[in-house]
Amino acid sequence: MGDYEAGMGAMSTPATPGTPTPLMPSSLRVDSMSYDRKSMPRCKCLPVDAPTWGAPHTCLTDFAVPDISLTRKLGAEFVGTFILIFGATAAPIVNQKYAGSETLIGNAACAGLAVMIVILSTGHISGAHLNPSLTIAFAALRHFPWVQVPAYIAAQVSASICASFALKGVFHPFMSGGVTVPSVGNGQAFALEFLITFNLLFVVTAVATDTRAVGELAGIAVGATVMLNILVAGPSTGASMNPARSLGPAIAAGNYKSIWIYIVAPTLGAVSGATTYSLIRQDEPPLHIQTVRTFGRH
């Protein structure tokens, strides 16, 4: 995505679940995850001689619009992933400690709501990846620069570890409830994790890179997909869909059973899901202004 292609973009927080009216039409959104940012206009102009707004004019001065630094993006990614892992992992731990009080629906709701609120609050800064598999898939499809992938993954995994040890300290000795361990055979677990991550990235790629998708409701779409996947695969695999979701709790609890499944299957599923949407999407007609959708409001 080095070139700003119409309809392509990066994940940013959608005005998801019942958001206020965007400040600009969804067709005029700038891709927060693109790395060839110099190809887009980067200034705000103060008109000095136009009789009406929008008429031809000269500029008194131009004010550069600063790019978000990588440090800020990584900070947002760390905090967002921390919130996600804390919420998604705490629910099954509470379920274990209090004899099933959360139930499967509660576990699914916690994870889905965590995804939704993080997309809303940090998507416009970092794209709200929150998931190494998603970061790799977007880089593979040129929606995200490969050079930033290691830093994003480091932020996501370190946030997961921090959140997991925080939960271990708060809920000890019930940390094992938050570890994703398959209750079915490895083959079935691999297939389930592949398929549910495929579903997730198909939806994410649609709402994050296609200007005609749900747009400002993207947070709801992604959160609902996470909930659906957990309701389907939660009892069998824990429905991780995210290597960071599994690695942090595994390290905190010292339980690495079948951990390879939760690293390999989601990554393959993510690349497959994102690629599938990219193959079936319809090309948009050329516009005078090339634009892309993001999860952010501009």
UniProtKB/TrEMBL annotation:
Superkingdom to which the source organism belongs: Eukaryota
Disordered: annotated span: 1-23
GO MF term list: active borate transmembrane transporter activity; channel activity
InterPro entries, per database record: Aquaporin-like, Aquaporin_transptr, MIP, MIP_CS
Main location (coarse class): membrane
Record's bilayer topology term: Multi-pass membrane protein
GO cellular component: membrane
One of the Pfam families matching this protein, by short name: MIP
SUPFAM superfamilies reported in the protein's UniProt record: Aquaporin-like
PROSITE patterns: MIP
Compartments in which it is found: Membrane
Keywords, alphabetical: Membrane, Repeat, Transmembrane, Transmembrane helix, Transport
TM segment ranges: 74-93, 105-125, 146-167, 187-208, 220-239, 259-280
Family: Belongs to the MIP/aquaporin (TC 1.A.8) family. NIP (TC 1.A.8.12) subfamily.
Cross-referenced PANTHER family: AQUAPORIN NIP2-1, AQUAPORIN NIP5-1-RELATED
Protein name listed in UniProt: Aquaporin
Organism per entry: Erythranthe guttata
